[in-house]
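Chapter summary example.
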Amino acid sequence: MQTEGLLNDIQAELNWLQEVIQQAVGFYLLHDGYEKNWTELPVPDLTDSVSPYADTVKNWNLSVYERIALALAMAPHIRPEVLDVFFGRNQLTDRPFTEFGGYLEKNHPGFIPSGQTLSFLLTANDLSKTIELSRVLADESVLIKEKVISLGEPEAGLPALDGQLIMNKQWVRYFITGEKMVPTHDPAFPAQKISTLMDWEDVVLDHVTLSHVNEITTWITHGEILLQDWGLIRKIKPGYRVLFYGPPGTGKTLTATLIGKQTGRDVYRVDVSLVVDKYIGETEKNLSRIFDIAMDKDWILFFDEADALFGKRTAASSSNDRHANQQTSYLLQRIEDYPGVVILATNLKANMDDAFTRRFQGMIHFAMPDTDERFTLWKNAFSGKCRLHPDIDVYHIAETFELSGGAIINVLRYCAMSAISRNDNIVTQAELLAGIRREYKKDNKTFGVNIL
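The structure predicted for these 452 residues follows.
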């Protein structure tokens, strides 16, 4: 669909907004010909439209008041002249109408709407609609949860509705071009989309681990049929919850990413450092933002180092302990209510609260690779431009050094940089050993010089 086609529905919505503004202002100022309320104006029918804007309105079942808020926030980006009527001056005071709110920016000639502007449109001619204003701007409002619009912070001491009504530029771009939204990784959304160029042959898993991983992909592929057509919805909750546990570098993150790649699902890794907060209630609020936004997206949520969030509960000997236990219960409930796939990863299964592990569909152990698996990992790692010297006994390397797949990739990186620095692509035995020694030092392990 061309950009012009995508804009048709937006133009119709902004034309309607312009009529609403003119009707609301005329009705409020008792102008002739504006005797009816703006709610009597016909709302654009988007039933048969397939644009991103129309799909958003229909999928979220936006009310007429939410559509007014969305169009008002969008107008400065696309049709700023729609808001010019708010430049009118009060003849009694010879100054702008206080009730219109809004801003005049030095570098922007148009009118910038505020929360007060929205309040005027919704409530000036009918104070009973104040409740609708509260719903549109509430934290649980879909437009707020999805970060489509927001109400900026006013200057200290000013009314809350003096805050600017802000439209997220990413959503403007999505409505205009149809390009898929990617949430920004920041404290307001503490998760980041992850992907990989690798394939399944790049992660070496034993048969048991791989069979358990395949259960996840089977659920993603056939879960809706099992729930609806097979009637399992009456007996089990939607969604799939699984724990990955094992030493660092054994493929937990890569496997989660490959599951998403295979099934066409976006994988978002939750930044635990941004979620956990020392203040009571803030951790739950931070996590809620993720689940609220992800709820209808079919995302795979991946919590690395999950024991920081979902660790064992303690005996409630203090108010902090009681709050920590309440927090754990809250997190468990949000995970159980999420209809998509949630993967928790930890280095130690024993650190996880039993309440989580009991209610998970799977617990998959990612063990350190054995000799044959390490041999495969070494061959895969050095199968490209960067290669090991033919005299190096790769199987003996695999047999001698117990390294994870992640550690082997670190060795590859070191060896590649060493080789290219001397204008070569063949890795010497000395460079390989130096790379391995670096990885051993990370775990405070040592090995002798004459081991080969």
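To summarize the output: The first strand starts at residue 89 and ends at 90.
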